[in-house]
Amino acid sequence: MTLLLPLVLVAYIVLYAFALSIPLHLHAVSSLIGGSRGLSGGYAQVQQPLKETLGDWVEREERIALERLLANVAPGGKDLEGVVEGSVVASPSREEPDYFYQWVRDAAITTSTLVDLYADDPSSQLSSSLSTILDAYANLQYTLQHTNNPSGTFSDLSGLGEPKFEIDGAPFVGNWGRPQRDGPALRAITLMAYLRAYNASHPWLWTSDSGEDWFKPLYDPKMPANSIIKADLEYVSHFWNESGFDLWEEVEGLHFFTAMVQMRALREGADLALAFGDDGAAEWYKLQAAYMEAFIPQFWDTQKGHLVETLESKRSGLDCGLLLGSLHGFPAAYANATHTPIYPPHSDEILVSLLALVQDQRTRFPINAAPPSSEDEEEDIVLEGVGLGRYPEDVYDGYGNKHSGGNPWFLCTSSAAEVLFRTAAHVSSTSSLTITDLSLPFYEALLASSSLDVDTGSYGPSDAVFHSVIERLVQTGDEFLSVVKKHAGAEGELSEQFDRNTGYMRGARDLTWSYGAFLQAGRARKATWGLGL
Ligand code: NOJ
Ligand code: NOJ
């Protein structure tokens, strides 16, 4: 470790101190989770107060979501016999649908939420349980990477594109949409965040002998790459321009979500490589990230006036993957960091794409039906919280291949809230709001109920529009969370979907990703507290 460049590391830690400073007020969770029942205990009976505001509910649901999320994670989860330690099971549902597998994507996304919780307060009781899980997750990823599977092998890295494994870590050999190239990028992002968080909480480790044992399995400049993060970065840097299946595992091509997380992995990977004195790799990852920055604008469709999820696809391109790509491609803390944002949640392109998706879903799903508008309102485009599904053409009903039609998904509905909360926080923290020709329809829809006139131009804290926008962003985010609240189960449980006609939950029960997406929306909501609303 003496070889390593302490100065670079200091800069690196300072840079990411931002990434670790997001407040989270889940204090109660540590006692809940770390209490006498331990991680595998029964679900907490969280009393519902008599008069509960949405904010109260969000906090209550955050505790439930974390507990139920952890129930699907080994070690510690409930009823997970046979599940190898370090696994995140997509859902406990073993038939109709059988989601009792570990998907690389779901696992990485879920685990990144656990890393955020760990980073909030590494010395908490919750964090000591989390660090056991995070270490097990990291170890298992090494095994999965080295497991030959239908996508390929480790030796030429092709096997890293395999999307899903059995719960004992064996390869899944059934037919599937493979490869899926977002997995290695998401996993690298999650493990890099863990490496930074752990390094920050164990500042002596980097220069100590035992540090080598901890860091090396995660990142080692040695080639051919055999450390977990480096192998994933090599995969991303060599395969990002090859087609693969989308995050919904259905269509082959080049996808916005995949590209956004790949670009983020390469950018952060370049920073990490530098911290490890791996200068050549840093250059290579940076170069590929630059190519990706030039490539990603192809997802903007000028004619349609919104981003599209897959290039050269017959679909409309409106897709919850656009929101997810923006959220996972651009971490909140990067507002303070060095990378130029590309399609962050507050960008005009993401906001107008969100508006177009909401417009579609609002009329597509009967449960979203807006009250009949009065005549003079008929032409108005309104932005309001509704249940959002994956994409307009979706036919997956959540149970199998009957294809009886798509429905709203909890994780998409929560993600819309997160985009709006993060936009509010961004506008507030930069003290400036610029409304362009492109974003005008979004802001007009957002402020529909307001008597304020909006026009293109720049607004600041001395303008009423500026404050109204922030207020409406938060209110509309809350409307999306109210939809989640309305369709959640009596115990706060979240499945994958809720029925477009009846509103009842359907699809895989206790979907781990539903809980993770909700927790992230909750974090983003907290970052809007105290914005002077
Ligand atoms: C399971 C996949 O994960 C899902 O995305 C897909 O829509 C259904 N199978 C139906 O093909
Ligand atoms: C189906 C979803 O389309 C896909 O994104 C997810 O990875 C699997 N279900 C498992 O949750």
Outline the structure in words.
This protein is mostly helical and 533 residues long. It has 2 domains: 53-82 and 302-370 and 379-532, Glycosyltransferase (Alpha/alpha barrel); 97-300, Alpha/alpha barrel (Glycosyltransferase), CATH 1.50.10.10. Helix content is 46%, strand content 4%. It has 16 helices and 10 strands. The chain has helices at 6-17, 27-34, 54-71, 104-120, 125-145, 183-201, 209-215, 228-239, 256-275, 279-295, 320-329, 348-364, 410-430, 440-446, 464-487, 512-526; strands spanning 102-103, 164-165, 244-245, 252-253, 300-301, 306-307, 433-435, 457-459, 497-498, 505-506. It has a two-stranded antiparallel sheet with strand order 1-2. The protein has a two-stranded antiparallel sheet with strand order 3-4. A two-stranded antiparallel ribbon has the order 5-6. The chain binds 1-deoxynojirimycin (NOJ) (2 copies). One 1-deoxynojirimycin (NOJ) binds at residues 90, 99, 103, 105-106, 247-249, 513. Its EC number is 3.2.1.3. GO terms for molecular function: glucan 1,4-alpha-glucosidase activity.
Order of helices and strands: HHHEHHEHHHEEHHEEHHHEHEHEEH
What amount of the residues lies in strands? under 5%
Radius of gyration, Cα only, in angstroms? 22 Å
According to CATH, what is the topology of the largest domain? Glycosyltransferase
The count of β-strands is 10
Unreliable residue stretches: 1-11, 13-41
Number of domains: 2
In short:
The chain has 16 helices and 10 strands.
SSE blueprint:
Layout: H1 6-17, H2 27-34, H3 54-71, E1 102-103, H4 104-120, H5 125-145, E2 164-165, H6 183-201, H7 209-215, H8 228-239, E3 244-245, E4 252-253, H9 256-275, H10 279-295, E5 300-301, E6 306-307, H11 320-329, H12 348-364, H13 410-430, E7 433-435, H14 440-446, E8 457-459, H15 464-487, E9 497-498, E10 505-506, H16 512-526
Antiparallel strand pairs: 1-2, 3-4, 5-6, 7-8, 9-10
Helix pairs in contact: 1-9, 2-5, 3-16, 4-5, 4-6, 4-16, 6-8, 6-9, 8-9, 9-10, 9-11, 11-12, 11-13, 13-15, 13-16
The chain binds 1-deoxynojirimycin (NOJ) (2 copies).
One 1-deoxynojirimycin binds at residues 90, 99, 103, 105-106, 247-249, 513.
